């Protein structure tokens, strides 16, 4: 792109759609923030936008198929308004780069996970920018603004990228090597949020509990955030079992602001398959960690990620996954069929030999088992009183208030309308596998 003197085209309207994980949500907010500070205006609908931005996910084939579908729909707008600009950012942009422009010529810009925050410069044709930018190493970590998700809650990305290279996972290829924000940056970011009324912060990272900056590890960081910022509630995700230390569990036990919910992906219940996945822990080790967590944090809620149908997984090994799920009794779980991700080790070296129908049969069976456990865990909540953050009204009715427990469960209450953003005591009165119902304790 040739260099020109540029004028920020203030007032141009942008619309950003986000796909995938909370990291993408946080990144989209950061991109939106950088456009707003440059005088761009947020459009509520794509139809009204001069710039359409898709922040994409690449974790499964389905996620990318959805983006191709969206880009097909956007082509209609572009035909009607040729000046419309389309930018694709995030993990799919990082994975495909120039290839995406070849496949979808009406896309104007493709910015990878390290370059997406330069979108305002790209739109204005600033020196050194280009139509496709996917190189790593350009990102000024501490320049990335942390973002408020709502007036009372926010995300702070504490680390980006991942060094684990699990054989099925595209993340290290699209998010790069692990790099952490400095503890001072994170403490300052949370303190700023508290000054703006935030009561709950979510610390994000692909592998959040391997956080390290100088002498500060994740447990140290959590305690600093709890004791130096005035924040009321701290959540974090996503953890890796190999980095779930006793020190971290003790920090959660001793500091009540660190909420008792851990998302701890097990992925599979067979050691042979875990080795093939490159997960660096055994089922026995994982269960020892879980037992210690439950011993030290009796009210903890556990959630996990599970993949079924990984190459060569036998029926007996699938049964081992079901056994592990019955043994741990997760409150919730995210469950997936194995999906080949081009560029990963498993795509290069392992044949995708489990038939799709068999993957679906295993996934259906797993969901059945987990839903029954979630139902039983939620039944056990009846009568308990939780300190809940008032998040808003339920999707179904303005008269129903949606609150979130310390253990990251949604409770719907019908008696009273506590102020949004406050923390209130709620007693659970009934439950199904997905939602709790309760009353405000007055
Ligand atoms: S820990 Fe494994 S699954 Fe998680 S982001 Fe890193 S490579 Fe992917």
Walkthrough of the structure:
By secondary structure, the protein is of the alpha/beta class. It folds into four domains: 2-133, Rossmann fold; 146-259, 2-Layer Sandwich (Transcription Regulator spoIIAA), CATH 3.30.750.210; 265-380, Transcription Regulator spoIIAA (2-Layer Sandwich), CATH 3.30.750; 385-440, Nucleic acid-binding proteins (OB fold (Dihydrolipoamide Acetyltransferase, E2P), Beta Barrel). It has 14 helices and 22 strands. It has helices spanning 22-36, 61-80, 91-96, 98-103, 119-123, 171-175, 183-195, 218-228, 246-254, 271-277, 283-296, 315-328, 345-349, 356-379; strands at residues 13-18, 41-42, 51-56, 85-90, 109-111, 132-133, 147-150, 153-157, 159-160, 179-180, 200-204, 212-213, 216-217, 233-237, 261-263, 301-308, 332-337, 385-393, 401-404, 410-413, 423-431, 436-440. The protein has a six-stranded parallel beta sheet, with helices on both faces. A five-stranded mixed barrel has the order 18-19-20-22-21. A hairpin with a 4-residue loop joins strand 21 (423-431) and strand 22. Helix 7 (183-195) packs parallel to helix 8 (218-228), helix 8 (218-228) packs parallel to helix 9 (246-254) and helix 12 (315-328) runs parallel beside helix 14. The longest helix is centred in the last third of the chain and has 24 residues, at 356-379. The radius of gyration is 23 Å and the shape is globular. It starts with 12 loop residues before the first strand and ends with a strand. Bound molecules: iron/sulfur cluster. Iron/sulfur cluster (SF4) is lined by residues 162, 164-166, 169, 171-172, 206-207, 240. Iron/sulfur cluster (SF4) binds next to helix 6.
